[in-house]
Amino acid sequence: MEVPILKQGEFLIATFQAALSDADLENLRRGLVYQVVKFRSRGVIVDVTAMDVMDSFASRTLREIAHMIRLRGAETVIVGIQPEVAFAMVQLGLTLEGVTTALDLEEGLAYLNEKSKSVD
Amino acid sequence: MAKREGSTKDAKGRNDQATEIAGNEGQSELLRELVAHLRQNRTQLREEWVQRISETRLLTAMTKDEIFAEATSVYDSYVEALETETFEALQAYARNLSERIIPRGVETHEVVGIVLLLRDVLARSLFAKYQADFRKLNRILDAYEPAANRIANTVAVGFVQERERVIRQQQEAIRELSTPVLQVRERLLILPIIGVIDPQRARQLTEQLLRGIRTNRAKVVVIDITGVAAMDVTVANHLVQTVEASRLLGATVIVTGLSPEIAQTLVTIGVDLGKMNTVGDLQGGIEQAERLLGYKVMAVAEAR
User: Fold this and answer.
1) Looking at residue B304, what DSSP letter applies?
2) What is the pLDDT of residues B125-173, one digit of tens each?
3) Hey, are the CB atoms on B210 and A89 less than 8 Å from each other?
4) SS3 breakdown of chain A: % helix, strand, coil, rounded to 5?
């Protein structure tokens, strides 16, 4: 299943629909980095609101996405982690260390706007 | 109704076996006779029972009228259970009754007491009726006793189960109350924790907090543990997990009010203090939270 990536000005928004396979996650990582380069985006939001489980592969992939996008000089924010998912994640030790997180899309955009303002 | 026991009334010998066989067939007949007797004498027996209840000072939480009304229902359900030999209706009634009287402060021993009293009152009336025919009395009791005991059991168990349900409900309510998540500013939540935290309460706390962060769209949470004397390693880990989970929802956590003992525990388990934001007391914590949120609190200058 392909994850739709939308362009919102200087930012890209990728919205998870439901359970993603490992292959889907790989494709997403490639696709996002490619689009960041193509559109010279300043930031990426990955919206995982629809995700009701987060396993270690997904968690690692999200960290790798953030890392790779930072190498392109852009910020990544993961938004929409559900309370139950967050709880399960910390119990498994999946803390998404080093990755910025925000409550939802609105907060994520606010954060990215702040960030890009301070850079200018 | 041909009664073979008529011919064996005076013989205690060889005809006993015939009586036994006849007995089993006559059981349901006896039961019907029993039920008919209980129905015929309903008013009088019920009176007697209510009288006994007040003599033994049971159900003091209820008024005379209430006792009478309930006594009527219980009596009728009792007789019906004896008659149909099914207990579902009685079970349902027992639970319904329990639901109503438990909030009134009626205790278990009272409920068991009154059911046993009814059993006694009815048994006595059987002794009185069949006193001339000891053999028949025995057979009537054979039919009556198991059913009466089962009834007593059903009512008592129904009452106790309802009580346990209420207790569980209250415990849940207390747990929720004792960990309130409070919004004190836009985007700022406070979670004051008081008392003993066991792993179950810690877990419930975390769940409540995370839901609160999402509902109130909080960006900063101050968890105050001034009221917590001690914390074992398991609970300390829970606290760390709470901080991490909150971060995943985009909220920063400030922990305030750590006692020296708890500080020691946290150091012992090797908490990465870079991950945990701590401030001495609640006031300091709120002030820092306000700074993080971009608030500045100033005294209003009095214009004269």
Assistant:
1) -
2) 999 999 999 999 999 898 889 888 988 898 899 889 988 998 888 887 7
3) no
4) 50, 20, 30
The verdict on ipTM greater than 0.85 is: yes
Q: In this structure, what CATH number is given to the domain that contains residue B288?
A: 3.30.750.24
Q: What residues of A are in contact with residue B207 (Cβ under 8 Å)?
A: 83, 87
- Look at B244 and A83 and tell me if their CB atoms are within 8 Å: no
- A103: nearest CB among B206, B207, B214: B214
B223 and B136 assigned to the same domain:
no
Total structural domains within chain A:
1
Instruction: Give the whole-angstrom CA distance, residue B239 versus residue B202.
Output: 8
Tens digits of per-residue pLDDT, A61-82? 999 999 999 999 899 999 999 9
On whether the CB atoms of residues B270 and B238 are closer than 8 A, the answer is no
Q: Which 3 state secondary structure label does DSSP give A102?
A: strand
Residue B278 belongs to what domain range?
182-293
Query: DSSP letter at B301?
Result: P
Residue B266 CA, distance from chain mean position:
38
Mark yes or no for CB contact B214/A107 under 8 Å: no
Residue located via tokens 């700074």:
B291
Looking at beta carbons, which residues of chain B come within 8 Å of A96?
Answer: 248
